[in-house]
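Hi C.,

You asked whether I'd gotten around to modeling the 246-residue construct. I have! Everything is below, sequence then structure, no commentary in between.
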Amino acid sequence: MAPVAAALTKVLITGFGPFYGVTNNPSWAIASRLPATLDNNIQLIVYPAEVPVAYHPVASIIPALIAEHQPDVALHIGVAEGRSYFAVEQSSTRRSYEFVQDIYGEVFTLEEQAKAWGDAEAVLQTDLDLNVIVDGWQNGTLHMKWPFNIGGRSTSAGQPVEVVLKEDIMETEDVRWSDNVGNYLCGFMYYMDLVEMGRSGAYKKRDVAFMHVPLLKTEEEFQFGVEVTVALIQAMVDDWRAKGRV
């Protein structure tokens, strides 16, 4: 007897636009290159534009996307300029966004936070099991090869590029668990979606994650980022389905 096909799983994806010093944000470069579907009945709902690195657009876009699409899982992507690895973040904190200006010179006041988040806890975590997910993510990326010098990775002086491309296979620490989403728009977006998915997602669970990517710059690196992201999405959906929310 043929195996029963998995029920459709909808995954919401976003990527950020330019901000200080980053004119081509790799988070959007990756999101915009993702396919519409993945194997095993996974549908990717990619927000069709760069999300501005600004509080009020995020505070408007995220609740509207969840209300419209009722995603099963969400993944938001941002860039961490100083990192040479990919990381999925565990939690986000309700911070003092009234003091940190966005790209438009605006802040998100305490009054606005109270209206948007009510009495939500100061620290919110994903309901996905990131330890299990990262294990699956690492296994799913072991066959991949890093483009040369991606995100600051380099090899010994004089080593030819073709040797790097042949031998620089990903290691487990190249994709990893983290709990350092930051206190700017990455942390703000993650906290916003953790609140909203807990309120109005398809299962009222915080089945959402935030991934930081290195400062990818070339088309080859962007395509590599797509492969790494697809592997993460598949691991996230596997965990979500294993919890029986299908």
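If it helps when you're writing up: The two ends are 21 Å apart (CA to CA).

Thanks,
B.
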